[in-house]
Write a structure and sequence with these properties.
With about 160 residues, this protein is an alpha+beta fold. It has one domain: Beta-Lactamase. The chain is built from seven helices and six strands, in the order H-H-E-E-E-H-E-H-H-E-E-H-H.
């Protein structure tokens, strides 16, 4: 059984996020990985896991701003890929922090359940990192991402009740 399956079976939400994040790091080899969870009911997002919590800590919720990025990820339900820091700077105001961490490319892989984007797996590394082969490898994260984020949603719902 995988770490993610064990965490879900045990009902451990934090361990499930950790397992998903570590799996994304292993599959993509990316220097920085974060997992964001989105709530379509109020349009908010929150970081639930980070491989660099000092720079990108798990955070509270914030509204999703309408941008070219959000149109692509939420509207078209397509991955966002930027392979240069200039492309990143067009959509992310924290591009200087990203660059300071040695990252100049990003993949934001939307996790989709029943036509809704419920989160993203965000993987960052050096300029030009996202080749067709690496993007194809990252597709393997869609199913474990869906399992982890559905579980997160269930845990969050239970805690509200």
């Amino acid at each position: 059984m995988t770490d993610l399956a064990r965490a879900i079976a045990a009902g451990d939400g934090a361990a499930a996020m950790e397992a998903l994040g570590r799996l994304a790091s292993e599959v993509t080899g990316a220097r920085l990985v974060t997992v964001m969870v989105f709530d379509p009911s109020d349009g908010s997002a929150g970081r639930e896991w980070s491989s660099m919590p000092g720079a990108y800590p798990v955070s509270g919720r914030k509204p999703i701003n309408p941008t070219r990025w959000s149109d692509q990820v939420f509207g078209s339900r397509e991955s966002f890929v930027a392979n240069t820091i200039e492309e990143i700077a067009e959509v992310f105001p924290d591009h200087e922090l990203i660059r300071s961490l040695g990252c100049e490319s990003v993949l934001n892989l939307p996790v989709i359940i029943a036509g809704q984007v419920i989160g993203t797996i965000n993987c960052l590394d050096a300029a030009g990192y996202w080749t067709d082969a690496r993007l194809a490898d990252a597709e393997a994260l869609r199913l474990p991402g869906a399992a982890a984020l559905m579980f997160h949603s269930l845990i969050a719902k239970e805690s509200r009740e």
